[in-house]
Backbone:
């Protein structure tokens, strides 16, 4: 390809993952005039039809994605940037960026974001407040540690995502089963435990610009169904703005900034899973990517008017961001809730079209169809749909979201 041909092409953005939650980002990038390429193992993934080009490569396979991206970059169109949306693949993104000399976070930062144990060890080194933790080699060690700790623990795979294999170790949980369940979801067969810290949990979404954290998303996570889904830890949406006092919000944001810098992320996106325990913020996990659940693409713009995904695209392209555009234009109330039908085969879906037409429903998405088999709610991908509502105040937004969920009926029958 000649330099003249290269210079005449529009900037080309590679988005790794073509899942359903990537679609708003694909659309946003194309609205900016970008040529959008998506990569995914599945050629029929929902986002493929919304992009200009498609590369078939597993999102969790950095080498395969590098090979596909390099071939496209050298022989089709030069890539100007690479990112992901709602997919926990920071190492794949960073590996492509490093290989093709594109903007991105350091490889070491991506490795830390992909390994919860290494992340916690780095945070401990740098005095970032976190729960007590330790690796667990086998079920016998788990039984010993649970007996010694005398407090509620959480077991999780070191390198999984979407709450897969994450369990609260209450007294009625069989520890042999718990270890095997968590290990099954770890590609490297590694498991860890950490203290379960009670208190308000927060989701944050932050742009790191030249080492300065701009936390533009701040949502109270909803765990009111925690006991229903026990021992699995399943979030049921969230609410913006936060009910926490301003001083606590500022303290949470300060810890997010501390954690991002501890991981070596000076420019990039970080998603925080935070808990305020006894008045002090702690990091549960920090992800180096845009969040799922339409937090970045829907909830943040609805709440503040800030184009978070647009700014993330600019970062991926190495563009300078005007700090003034990060200032919230308003502070509206937004509530999100998920759909959890009974396990079984879907035989009827009612009410979704009606709910989608309500004026204060910003999103109504049912992710199952007739004939699909719904499994138990044991991880976040098991959620069958989502609604996002707005309201004049917090209570109204929450009530409207819950009314929407109750108005959608996903009927299932037992699977023989």
Residues:
């Amino acid at each position: 390809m000649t330099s003249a041909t290269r210079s005449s092409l529009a900037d080309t953005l590679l988005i790794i993952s073509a899942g359903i939650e990537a679609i708003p980002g694909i659309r946003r990038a194309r609205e900016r005039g970008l040529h959008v390429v998506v990569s995914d193992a599945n050629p029929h993934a929902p986002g493929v039809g919304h992009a200009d080009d498609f590369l078939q490569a597993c999102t969790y396979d950095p080498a395969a994605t590098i090979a596909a991206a390099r071939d496209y970059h050298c022989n089709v169109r030069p890539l100007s940037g690479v990112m992901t949306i709602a997919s926990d693949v920071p190492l794949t993104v960073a590996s492509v960026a490093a290989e093709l000399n594109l903007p991105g976070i350091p490889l070491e930062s991506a490795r830390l974001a992909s390994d919860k144990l290494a992340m916690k060890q780095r945070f401990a080194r740098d005095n970032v407040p976190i729960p007590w933790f330790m690796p667990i080699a086998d079920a016998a060690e788990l039984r010993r540690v649970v007996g010694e700790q005398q407090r509620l623990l959480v077991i999780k795979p070191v390198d999984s995502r979407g709450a897969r294999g994450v369990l609260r170790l209450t007294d009625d949980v069989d520890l042999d089963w718990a270890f095997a369940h968590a290990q099954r979801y770890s590609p490297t067969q590694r498991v860890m435990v950490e203290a379960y810290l009670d208190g308000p949990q927060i989701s944050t979404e932050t742009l790191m610009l030249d080492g300065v954290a701009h936390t533009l998303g701040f949502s109270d996570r909803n765990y009111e169904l925690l006991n229903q889904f026990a021992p699995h830890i399943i979030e049921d949406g969230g609410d913006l703005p936060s009910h926490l006092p301003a001083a606590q919000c500022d303290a949470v944001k300060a810890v997010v900034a501390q954690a991002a810098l501890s991981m070596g992320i000076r420019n990039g996106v970080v998603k925080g899973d935070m808990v305020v325990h006894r008045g002090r913020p702690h990091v549960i996990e920090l992800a180096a990517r845009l969040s799922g659940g339409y937090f970045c693409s829907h909830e943040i713009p609805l709440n503040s008017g800030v184009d978070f995904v647009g700014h993330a695209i600019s970062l991926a392209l190495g563009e300078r961001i005007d700090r003034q555009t990060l200032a919230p234009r308003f502070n509206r109330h937004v509530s999100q809730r998920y759909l959890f039908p009974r396990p079984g085969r879907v035989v009827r879906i009612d009410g979704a079209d009606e709910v989608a037409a309500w004026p204060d429903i910003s999103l109504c998405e049912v992710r199952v169809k007739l004939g699909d088999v719904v499994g138990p709610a044991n991880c976040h991908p098991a959620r069958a749909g989502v609604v996002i509502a707005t309201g004049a105040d917090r209570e109204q937004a929450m009530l409207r979201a819950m009314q929407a969920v109750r108005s959608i009926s996903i009927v299932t029958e037992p699977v023989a």
Remarks:
- Residues 246-262 form the longest helix (17 residues).
- Confidence is low (pLDDT under 50) at residues 1-8.
- The first strand starts at residue 12 and ends at 16.
- The chain is about 35% helix and 25% strand.
